[in-house]
Amino acid sequence: MKTITRIVLLAAAAWVVLRLAAGSRKPAETVKFFRTLPSDRPLVIAHRGGADLFPENTLAAFKGAVELGVDALELDIHRTADGVPVVIHDETVDRTTDGSGRVDSFTLAELRRLDAGYRFHPPGSPDEFPYRGRGVAVPTLREVFAALPGEHLIVEVKEDDPAAADLVVALIREFERTGLTLAASFHHEVLLRFRQVGPEIATHASRREVIRFLPAAWLGLEGLSSPGFEAFLVPPRSGPLPVATRRFIRAAGNRNIFTAAWTVNDPAEMERLLDRGIGGLITDRPDLARELVRGSGEPGAAARP
């Protein structure tokens, strides 16, 4: 019994020491990407431009989502055979166009010939293809930047190659989009490259950084974190493990970190996340999310820097 008591006391003392040490760590720096976005309510972020409503990752989708009144657009990047960053999610063109093959096997000129609206059908209408033959193409990142100069964009590099980050940073600077672009990737080394070559550009946490933050949040020790990123873009759950919990969202807010959940298309799940104080919903159904956010009356202030 004495041994158990000693262990408990030592654990409690260690926790107190860690809490005191946490007070000396710096929170995330003043936000860049979120500075000009609404701070009095959760954000609606159109995943691939609203993939259930429009042909994903196309100018038609991005413009349609903007007309719906979304706060930001999420998009994905691969490079062509001739090294041009183009906006498409998959490694291949098979799922979203009338073509077949890897994106990096096409030159830009060859990719231009494909119909990026060919396979899209509206929700509940599997036999309707309203965008076929209407000139919907796989856009370049340059074209998206030119077409949407004032929109907030989350640009995700899909390739596990840090060199791709250099091209994206160069375009962000060329179009003077530093405050309007959040650089994203599932690959830790790509995010590190973004921070190295474009320190003025906002990034989100990598999976590795989220995993590191989770136990600190559970223990109330998030103050030990001195983040080098502005946002957590996380799933509500990862397998059996809850991620976007009320405690995680609050802990992130305590460190000046914005939290958004992906990819949330079910209205009931949207409502649960809004109730927890989520900062943003990344969704294929921005129309549904907009209605819920308007009616929620919950600003999600705990999740906002």
What does this structure look like?
- With 305 residues, the protein is of the alpha/beta class.
- It has one domain: TIM Barrel, CATH 3.20.20.190.
- It has 10 helices and 11 strands.
- Helix 9 links the parallel strand 10 and strand 11.
- The relative contact order is 0.16.
Distance between the termini: 45 Å
Largest sheet: 9 strands, mixed
Q: Structural class, judged by helices and strands?
A: alpha/beta
* Element pattern in H and E: HEHEEHHEHEHEHEEEHEHEH
Q: How many strand units?
A: 11
Provide the number of structural domains.
1
The CATH class turns out to be Alpha Beta
Output the CATH homologous superfamily.
Answer: Phosphatidylinositol (PI) phosphodiesterase
Measured by DSSP, the beta-strand proportion falls in 5-15%
Mean pLDDT level: 90
CATH topology: TIM Barrel
What shape does the CA trace take?
Answer: globular
Helical fraction = 25-40%
Low-confidence stretches: 2-24, 298-303
